[in-house]
Structure formats: structure tokens, C-alpha cells
Amino acid sequence: MEKEFILIQISLHEARTAYYSSLIEENKNNPRFLFSTVARLTKSHSSVETSIPSTLCSNDFMTFFTNKIVAIRNKIHQTLPTNTTELESSVSPQSLLDCSVPIDLAELTSTIMASKPTTCLLDPIPVRLLKDALSYTFLLDIINLSLQTGCTKGL
Fold first, then answer.
1. Could you read off the pLDDT tens digit of each residue along the chain, which spans 155 residues?
2. 108 with 143: CB under 8 angstroms?
3. Which residues are CB-neighbours of 124 under 8 A, at least 6 positions away?
4. Backbone angles phi and psi of 96, in degrees to 5
5. Is the pTM value of this prediction over 0.90?
6. H-state helical runs in 1-155
7. Where are the domains of the chain?
8. Rounded CA gap, 114 and 108, in Å?
């Protein structure tokens, strides 16, 4: 009886292996399908939204983003040249944004709303949250300020 059970397990394993091997081979040019299949097989929940613990408060949220901004600023300062001569020689005249035009809310809205709703774990902000934030004018102000003071070096 135990021997039959082991043979059944081996047969199921081989059948499952053959099924998924052919499924992966048939869909080798479909990365979305492959990703979801691997996630399902490995019980990965990275594509599932994370839930926010109820113990967090607005101060925790603010602290998280404040620390994020401080870390970004520190990285920027670490990559900047240490003196003006070095800065002038590292930035060519073509890399400066000397002619940027501020965008209006309609242009910002149409651009962001045209974005795909998918989000990568590396995105600094989920697309859904970005779309929800469109009603806040500070987002438009941040983008326009960036356009007015920005530099394309490194892009």
C-alpha cells in the first residue's frame, strides 16, 4: 500500500512537471504570464497590495517620507562635485534645461492618466497613488519647479 502511494506521488510530480514545462515553453514570449505563473507556483505575494497595519498613525507616515527625502538628498549631495570648477566642467551647456516651459494641470493629468496602472516594486510611488494625488496642486508645483531648476546630466 505504501509503495503504491509513493508511485502515485512520483507520477503526480512527473505529470505536474511536464504540464508546467510545456506551459512555460508555450508562453516563453509572454513575460506577464510567466511572472504570474512563477508567483503562483512559489506562493509569491509580491504582486498583491500590502496592507497598512492599523497601529500606524499619520506621524509614522510623515516620518517615513521625511526619511526618504533625507536619504535622496544625501545621495544627491554625495554624487555632486565638491567645488564649482569641478561642477562647471562636469555639466555641459547642452545638459542644462535652459528652456523649459511649465506644464499645466490638464497636461499633467492627461500624461499621468495615460500611464499603465501596473506598478513595479522599484517605483518610488505606486501609479494608483500618483493618479489619486492629481487633485493636489502641490504635485504640479513640484514638477514645474523641477523643470525650472533641473539638469539633464545623468539622464
1. 677 878 888 888 888 888 888 888 898 888 888 888 888 877 755 545 556 677 777 788 788 888 888 888 788 777 766 665 555 555 554 454 456 788 898 998 898 888 888 877 777 778 888 888 887 788 888 888 877 776 434 33
2. yes
3. none
4. -80, 145
5. no
6. 2-26, 31-41, 58-79, 84-90, 105-113, 127-132, 137-149
7. 2-41, 92-155
8. 10
